[in-house]
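Quick check before the chapter quiz. The format below is the same one you will see on the exam, so make sure you can read both the input and the output lines.
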Amino acid sequence: MPADPAFHHSAPEPAADRTAQPAGLVGRFAVQVRERPTAPALVYGDEWLDYATLDRHANRLAHALIARGVARGRLVGLHAGRSAALVVGILGILKAGAAYLPLDPAPPGARPADTAGDAAPALVLSDACEPPAGWVPLSAVAAEGACEADPGIEADPDDLACVIHTSGSAGRPESVMVTHRGILDLLDDWTARFGTTPGEAMAMWPGTGSDASVRELLLPPTTGGVLHLVPDGVRDDPRALADWMRVHHVVRILLPPAHVRRLAEAPGEHLAGLALRHLLTGREPLPEDTLHRLERALPGLRVLNGYSPTGTALYCTVHLGPRPRRAPVDTRVHVLDERLRPVPAGVTGELYVGGAGLARGYLGRPGLTATRFVADPAAPGERMYRTGDLVRRLPDGSVRFVGRGDDRAGTLGFRGGPGEAGDPGGLPRREAPSGPGGSLITFRDGEGRGQVVCVHPADGTVFRYLSLAEALPGGYGVHGIRSPGINPGEELPPTVEAMAEAYLRLVEPLPDGPLVLTGLSRGGLVAHEMGRRLAEEGRTDLSVVLLDAPATGDEDGRTDVELRDKGDRLDGTPPPSVPMNTDKAREPATAARLVLVQAVGTGGDTPLLRGIRDHWHRRAGNGLVVEPVPCAPRDMLGSEHVRQVAARIEAELTFLADRSGHPNDNPAAGLEAR
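Here is the expected output.
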């Protein structure tokens, strides 16, 4: 390992040669219009437009905008939901030489007017029935255009193409300026990796205001594809989404990991008969069992997992397939120390990104731009983006995510705050530093109604709780505790008692109020011990929900429980098995409210199931609440069963809120107790 490592110049992952393309986005769309004027370009519900018709609508809007004084370098707001108006609006604005600012009206709590006010666009086009004051109806402006010929304006690569407004996870919201060069590089990378087939159906799932929408909306019309806008009514329903993809023969879609897992939970029902060949995702690696189900159900499917800081055009590094590595796209990826010096392989440093996909900076925030977009020591005269993400470079040149170097929100895959990039509102976005006590990962901060803390099961990770976080109402904070021992240099506490003590220190900073501690399988043992200790300290607004936690031995016995991470550690080596001694059978009963959510299958009650209930009943000082779930243990947090688990936890939080400040003298009131 060199003492003074040189800058690592990343190259694109080997792919097919990039074919010659027209210089700009508008030019590429014009080629498709000439080659396939009557072919379908856009489908939404019962509405569809061919290439020639879409081009005429966009040209009329462009001429109307030009007549209103819109020109190159100007910014136009576009307030539109999933409709043909959205696509016509984007193409019309680009044809006028301007950049578009997407203002998505769909997300709960969205404030498009505030977003538009911060960005100060030349005007805002809206397809709303009653646009806000000062905004103009898109249809009315388009009707002003008297010419259907192309205006003939082609932007330069460094011109602004769009401005993506983040949620403000770092404090004040940020308006990221994305250039034509960045988007073109993104599209070129896709065509180099996967090629294009004119006429193939490409689905648009992300929110219309997210950075993910940029490629999803612009790739099909510039490559001859058919853009299918996923209807709002099927976006979050796996069964309906699968049926919709099957009907429209969708070959390509971008989905968040939680949705991918939900589709793969029932491959025979959701995946059979799909034409899907390309699946994009991000934020977190997909579990191996999910990838295995996808591969078996859809032979030949290629899965791309992308990483996207806000300062780049959608993604800057990716990995293909199940291996947890990231291969650079067309970027320079540096892992640097605090003095901007490269660190050796295996050493943690901060990730910096340079290259064609880099954004111009933050609109109206030169100070923040100067802080985040700094000079690239490896490329004189060029800049690189400081992501704030801590990574390690592996010997093969790929990088692995470790954590955050500041308090900004960060995820693997799509970056930004909740609700961005198709975020369903409950996925990991902040991680406390790892140490002897593991890591506290916040899925959602909530609104102060209560907190849910999920303790890792035997594999040490918290990925499987993502479906639970998504199913719980947004008012509750949801967190996961990841096991120490996954990262190099970390030691696993020797006993469940030691784990509980360390994990209680992690949750101390959480807001006061109703608290549910939960854990799947072996994680329930640790959650039980954490709750027992808190109850001994006098905490009453507390419930421990055991998700199919096992019995730990007879009254006088001692059981060794093996906790280990089933995946690779961050340095690429498998972690050792660590025996975890538990002595729960000889512990006193807990004073905490105790609920057992038990997977009972479909074959009726058995002596084993009764034995587990009896075991926990003897440890429930105030009585045991039992919630049977008709599924196998492995399916408890999958498919429709996670909704029952979420409803049980929500009921506990409501119960605790109602009884706030009072002892739980009748914990099973109104509930099934056994």
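If your answer matched, good. The longest helix spans residues 641-658.
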